[in-house]
Amino acid sequence: MEQRPELTVEPVSPWARAQVMLPVFVPFALIGGLLPSFSLAANLYVLALGGGLMLAGLSSRLPRRAAPVALLPGVAWWLVPVGVFAIVEIVTFAMGSTHDYPTLSLLADPLLDGYLLRSMAYFAWLAGFWGLVRR
């Protein structure tokens, strides 16, 4: 099989991720933690950060990590709870998300009221999205 040089990927050290994530994503997460949950400012902030990461992922400037050829067998077991949570969220959102039958987002609101947990949630979201961008 012929090797195409434009598709080969150089191995990236694991520290390359930490070097970007900590100094860049921590300030963004701390700023995001200051914004009230589900406010217009928070939604615009998430859209701006997500759009910036998406543009970074679409550019050819970032080093890419090789994607696995096939999914591991244990991945299906992780997709089952994610699928169940997605179905519950969609159904409850369609039903109007009352306090009797809340969405998962409404249930997370008391946890996200605190600055520290909201900042940690922003950091987890940025780190996860960064992992997707690098693929």
List keywords for this structure.
135 residues, transmembrane helix, 5 helices, Transmembrane protein, single chain, membrane, transmembrane, mainly alpha
pLDDT average, as an integer? 78
Radius of gyration from CA coordinates: 18 Å
Report the total helices.
Answer: 5
Report the sheet with the most strands, covering strand number, pairing sense and barrel closure. none
Count of individual beta strands: 0
Please trace the helix and strand order, writing H or E for each element: HHHHH
Oligomer: single chain
Helix fraction by DSSP (H/I, runs of at least 4): 55-70%
**N-end to C-end Cα span:** 23 Å
Which structural class do the helices and strands define?
Answer: mainly alpha
Shape summary: globular
Strand content: under 5%
Low-confidence stretches: none
Could you describe the 3D structure shown?
The chain has 135 residues and is an all-alpha fold. The chain contains five helices and no strands. It has helices spanning 15-34, 40-58, 75-94, 104-112, 115-133. α1 packs across α5 and α2 runs parallel beside α5. The longest helix is centred in the first third of the chain and has 20 residues, at 15-34. The radius of gyration is 18 Å and the shape is globular. 5% of the residues are buried. The chain crosses the membrane at residues 20-38, 44-63, 75-95, 115-133. It comes from Catellatospora aurea.
